[in-house]
Write a structure and sequence with these properties.
Blueprint: E1 9-13, H1 23-32, E2 42-47, E3 53-59, E4 64-70, E5 84-87, H2 89-96
Parallel strand pairs: 1-2
Antiparallel strand pairs: 1-5, 2-3, 3-4
């Protein structure tokens, strides 16, 4: 499977989008609907109304990537939160694998300064 750098930000557009939208249409959605910069080092995630297709848009120094995943059966479990949901790259991989993000919670990151 395709793996993304763990330091990338992931923004999930919660509302469904028209499946005919290509790079320019999705980049405009990032700017106007999400209020974000499509040229930032981030992945923008979109889905159709039936939640059986996902599009990923990201900028890579010299151009945009547009990746599409279509499920032959089942549906993606889309979070039912705010209009813009921020995910980790790990959570994006969970979403693409069909895992319900509401049920999956990783251990919190712990930062210690002393051993004893």
């Amino acid at each position: 499977m395709f793996r993304f750098e763990p330091e990338l930000k992931v923004y999930l557009h919660r509302d469904p989008v028209d499946g005919r939208k290509a790079i320019n249409g999705l980049a405009l959605l990032v700017e106007h609907a999400l209020g974000l910069n499509p040229f930032e080092p981030a992945i923008y995630v979109f889905s159709n109304r039936r939640r059986d297709r996902v599009k990923l848009l990201l900028w890579d120094r010299t151009g945009f990537w547009l990746m599409i995943k279509r499920l032959e059966a089942d549906r993606f479990r889309w979070p039912k939160e705010a209009a813009v949901v921020t995910l980790t790259v790990e959570q994006l991989h969970w979403l693409l694998a069909g895992i319900d993000l509401a049920a999956m919670r990783p251990h919190p990151v712990r930062k210690y300064t002393k051993v004893g």
